[in-house]
């Protein structure tokens, strides 16, 4: 692992395409929510629980997969995760009840967690510092395409057949990644990881006890939490509240992802002149402003094209916050990168999933959703200041 090491472009793209499975698993079936609800005899609100279940299961998968990856190697955990994800997807294509849908999504998300926790660890094994932030941005530029095109793919599949075909597509995608990973990321003989004698629980305890870790973990969790809340209710916001068609929903949703892509690209350019920290400090402040605008749009009942720019600004800030937080956070964990990534991922998706699940208890209204989004932005801002104080204390 080196500060100025370079990684082949083919590896970057394959890692990015693998990361795309996460947003694909969440966003591809969003246009099908009304059809799924009708098919299973439930409401769209109940179908949205499948996103919350996926978030919680993803957290469980990351928590278990992180320690396994540090102990047994990245390849074994990543490959197993892809198989679990694919088989669960094929099962989901044939469910006929809400209970089966939720159970299948949980199993699929555990496999997704094993996949998701492996990618940051592979990056940390290769580079650190500014180079790590750049690599996370490059992977982000590839994987962030997924949320933009996923609803369109889902809508196209619905034109060709039933909603079950969306999950068949997800399973086939996961299996297609296996030969690509073997030809690029895991090319050459397998290198066994030396045993370090550290137990699973001890790995996680050591991560949490690291002074700089908790502020970064909660900062990332709060920052990402607002986006999870938006994605959970995106179909309701655009198709029900603003009365937009399925095709228009796809375009409106893609606008938010385009904003994230633009900020990821801008972040990578800024990293040529600045270190990750000042960039993510500024982006977090912008996120708070954007959350205030989203809240104002709901209170004043702005039309959809008044609400959209504010939501785009909020979503876009994630492109400059997340990769920099990951790079700075993982600097302190050269031997337990997967376990550290697992702790952050578990908090990020576990707390985010729990929050989106609990939000089902709130009135089904736009104002309820944006209040939750604004609360996440405020929490992110407070965690940023906590992290800065910890960083100043360490330098002193």
Automatic annotation (TrEMBL):
<feature type="transmembrane region" description="Helical">
    <location>
        <begin position="213"/>
        <end position="236"/>
    </location>
</feature>
<dbReference type="GO" id="GO:0042910">
    <property type="term" value="F:xenobiotic transmembrane transporter activity"/>
</dbReference>
<protein>
    <recommendedName>
        <fullName>Bcr/CflA family efflux transporter</fullName>
    </recommendedName>
</protein>
<dbReference type="InterPro" id="IPR036259">
    <property type="entry name" value="MFS_trans_sf"/>
</dbReference>
<dbReference type="InterPro" id="IPR050189">
    <property type="entry name" value="MFS_Efflux_Transporters"/>
</dbReference>
<dbReference type="Pfam" id="PF07690">
    <property type="entry name" value="MFS_1"/>
</dbReference>
<feature type="transmembrane region" description="Helical">
    <location>
        <begin position="163"/>
        <end position="186"/>
    </location>
</feature>
<dbReference type="InterPro" id="IPR020846">
    <property type="entry name" value="MFS_dom"/>
</dbReference>
<dbReference type="InterPro" id="IPR011701">
    <property type="entry name" value="MFS"/>
</dbReference>
<feature type="transmembrane region" description="Helical">
    <location>
        <begin position="106"/>
        <end position="123"/>
    </location>
</feature>
<dbReference type="InterPro" id="IPR005829">
    <property type="entry name" value="Sugar_transporter_CS"/>
</dbReference>
<dbReference type="InterPro" id="IPR004812">
    <property type="entry name" value="Efflux_drug-R_Bcr/CmlA"/>
</dbReference>
<feature type="transmembrane region" description="Helical">
    <location>
        <begin position="365"/>
        <end position="384"/>
    </location>
</feature>
<keyword id="KW-0472">Membrane</keyword>
<keyword id="KW-0997">Cell inner membrane</keyword>
<dbReference type="GO" id="GO:0005886">
    <property type="term" value="C:plasma membrane"/>
</dbReference>
<feature type="transmembrane region" description="Helical">
    <location>
        <begin position="7"/>
        <end position="26"/>
    </location>
</feature>
<feature type="transmembrane region" description="Helical">
    <location>
        <begin position="46"/>
        <end position="65"/>
    </location>
</feature>
<keyword id="KW-0812">Transmembrane</keyword>
<feature type="transmembrane region" description="Helical">
    <location>
        <begin position="248"/>
        <end position="267"/>
    </location>
</feature>
<keyword id="KW-1003">Cell membrane</keyword>
<feature type="domain" description="Major facilitator superfamily (MFS) profile">
    <location>
        <begin position="11"/>
        <end position="392"/>
    </location>
</feature>
<keyword id="KW-0813">Transport</keyword>
<feature type="transmembrane region" description="Helical">
    <location>
        <begin position="77"/>
        <end position="94"/>
    </location>
</feature>
<keyword id="KW-1133">Transmembrane helix</keyword>
<comment type="similarity">
    <text>Belongs to the major facilitator superfamily. Bcr/CmlA family.</text>
</comment>
<feature type="transmembrane region" description="Helical">
    <location>
        <begin position="135"/>
        <end position="157"/>
    </location>
</feature>
<dbReference type="GO" id="GO:1990961">
    <property type="term" value="P:xenobiotic detoxification by transmembrane export across the plasma membrane"/>
</dbReference>
């Amino acid at each position: 692992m080196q500060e100025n090491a370079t990684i082949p472009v083919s590896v970057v793209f394959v890692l990015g395409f693998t990361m795309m499975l996460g947003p694909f698993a969440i966003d591809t079936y969003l246009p099908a929510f009304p059809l799924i609800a009708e098919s299973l005899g439930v409401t769209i609100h109940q179908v949205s629980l499948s996103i919350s279940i996926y978030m919680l299961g993803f957290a469980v998968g990351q928590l278990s997969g992180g320690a396994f990856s540090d102990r047994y190697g990245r390849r074994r955990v990543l490959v197993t995760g892809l198989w679990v994800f694919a088989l669960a997807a094929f099962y989901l294509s044939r469910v006929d009840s809400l209970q089966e849908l939720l159970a299948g999504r949980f199993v699929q998300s555990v496999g997704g967690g094993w996949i998701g926790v492996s990618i940051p660890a592979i990056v940390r094994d290769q580079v650190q510092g500014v180079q790590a932030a750049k690599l996370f941005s490059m992977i982000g530029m590839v994987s962030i395409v997924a949320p933009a095109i996923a609803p369109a793919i889902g809508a196209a599949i619905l034109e060709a057949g039933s909603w079950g075909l969306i999950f068949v597509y997800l399973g086939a995608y996961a299996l297609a990644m296996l030969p690509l990973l073997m030809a690029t990321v895991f090319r050459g003989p397998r290198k066994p990881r030396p045993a370090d004698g550290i137990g699973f629980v001890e790995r996680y305890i050591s991560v949490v006890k690291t002074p700089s870790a908790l502020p970064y973990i909660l900062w990332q969790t709060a920052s990402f939490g607002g986006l999870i809340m938006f994605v959970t209710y995106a179909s309701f916001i655009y198709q029900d509240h603003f009365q937009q068609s399925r095709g228009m929903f796809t375009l409106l949703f893609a606008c938010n992802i385009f904003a994230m892509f633009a900020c990821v690209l801008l972040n990578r350019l800024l990293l040529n002149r600045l270190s990750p920290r000042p960039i993510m400090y500024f982006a977090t402040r912008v996120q708070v402003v954007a959350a205030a605008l989203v809240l104002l749009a709901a209170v004043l009942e702005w039309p959809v094209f008044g609400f959209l720019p504010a939501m785009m600004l909020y979503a876009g800030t994630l492109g400059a916050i997340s990769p920099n937080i990951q790079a700075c956070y993982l600097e302190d964990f050269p031997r337990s990168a997967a376990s550290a990534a697992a702790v952050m991922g578990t908090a990020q998706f576990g707390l985010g999933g729990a929050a989106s699940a609990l939000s089902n208890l709130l009135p089904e209204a736009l104002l309820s959703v944006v209040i939750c989004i604004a609360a996440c932005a405020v929490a992110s801002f407070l965690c940023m200041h906590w992290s800065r104080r910890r960083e100043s204390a360490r330098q002193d």
